[in-house]
Amino acid sequence: LTGAQDGSVRMFEWTRPQQLVCFRQAGNARVTRLYFNSQGNKCGVADGEGFLSIWQVNQTTSNPKPYLSWQCHSKTTSDFAFITSSSLVATSGQSNDNRNVCLWDTLVSSSNSLIHAFTCHDHGATVLQYAPKHQLLISGGRKGYICIFDIRQRQILFTFQAHESAVKALALDPSEDYFVTGSAE
């Protein structure tokens, strides 16, 4: 799965040089992040205009429409994570009201899909990582701060400054004992 600055999203197969599917054409907002869910049957695309779109992967048409597309953040959606069986999604981004990390339920109507919004990360959240064993979300922000959220209790557990500049990467070890951050500096 590839996403580009021009907004296009294409899926390829390892043994074929041609694309299998074009989920989005060029001319859309730049792609900020894309992932497959853990089952591999859905893919999601976050973009620079604050939208998250999700497609079924096993499409037979060459230009399928997303089964879900909504504006998660008013400025940009920078990252997202499929939670549980991919019916719950967490997003990070930048919104005018500082609700920069959000939980969404994809099984209800778009007007009721926001489960919880965390007010955090002045100037926006840049990256997001889900720790399934501990039911935690870890986010990094533009000012170098890390926030750790308990998604069961829907509260912020910890906030600390890890870097002097924007957090650009988060990685979690498989046993969830450690996480690593990378920054713009």
If you had to describe this structure to a student in words, what would you say it looks like?
The protein has one domain: YVTN repeat-like/Quinoprotein amine dehydrogenase (Methylamine Dehydrogenase, Chain H, 7 Propeller). The strands form five sheets. A four-stranded antiparallel β-sheet has the order 4-5-6-7, with no helix packed on it. Strands 8-9-10-11 form a four-stranded antiparallel β-sheet, with no helix packed on it. Strands 12-13-14-15 form a four-stranded antiparallel β-sheet, with no helix packed on it. The mean pLDDT is 93. The chain is mainly beta. Strand 4 and strand 5 form a beta hairpin.
Topology overview:
Layout: E1 2-3, E2 9-12, E3 19-24, E4 31-36, E5 42-47, E6 51-56, E7 68-71, E8 76-83, E9 88-94, E10 99-105, E11 114-119, E12 125-131, E13 136-141, E14 145-150, E15 155-161, E16 167-172, E17 179-183
Pfam family, one: WD40
WD repeats: 160-185
InterPro entries: DmX-like/RAVE_component (IPR052208), WD40/YVTN_repeat-like_dom_sf (IPR015943), WD40_repeat_dom_sf (IPR036322), WD40_rpt (IPR001680)
Give the assembly state of these chains. Answer: single chain
Tell me the total number of β-strands: 17
Shape: globular
Give the structural class.
mainly beta
Annotated CATH homologous superfamily: YVTN repeat-like/Quinoprotein amine dehydrogenase
Looking at the overall shape, the CATH architecture is 7 Propeller
Number of H/I helices: 0
Q: Could you state the order of secondary-structure elements as H and E?
A: EEEEEEEEEEEEEEEEE
CATH fold node name: Methylamine Dehydrogenase, Chain H
CATH class: Mainly Beta
Which sheet architecture does the biggest sheet show?
4 strands, antiparallel
Mean pLDDT: 93
Rounded to the nearest angstrom, the radius of gyration is 16 Å
Task: Report helical residue fraction.
Answer: under 10%
- The low-confidence parts are none
Biggest sheet strand order reads: 4-5-6-7
Cα-to-Cα separation, first versus last residue: 29 Å
Strand content: over 45%
